[in-house]
Amino acid sequence: METLILKQTHDLEIAANILRQCGLVACPTETVYGLCGNALDEKVVENIFKAKGRPSDNPLIVHICSLDMLEQLVLEVSDDAKKLMDAFWPGPLTLIFKSKDIIPLKTRGNLKTVAIRFPSNKIIVELIKKSKLPLAAPSANISGKPSPTNIDRVIEDLYGKIDCIIDGGNCTIGLESTVVDVSSENMAILRPGVITTTMLKKIVPQINVPTNAEPIAPGMKYKHYAPFANVVIVKGEQLEKIAIKIQELVIKDKLNKKRVGILIVDELMNYFDNIPVLSLGSINNLENIASNLFEKLRQLDDLQLEQVYTIYLNDNNLGVSIMNRLVKACNNQIIEN
Ligand code: TXA
Ligand code: MG
Question: Does a cis peptide bond (omega within 30 degrees of 0) precede residue 90?
Answer without folding.
Answer: yes
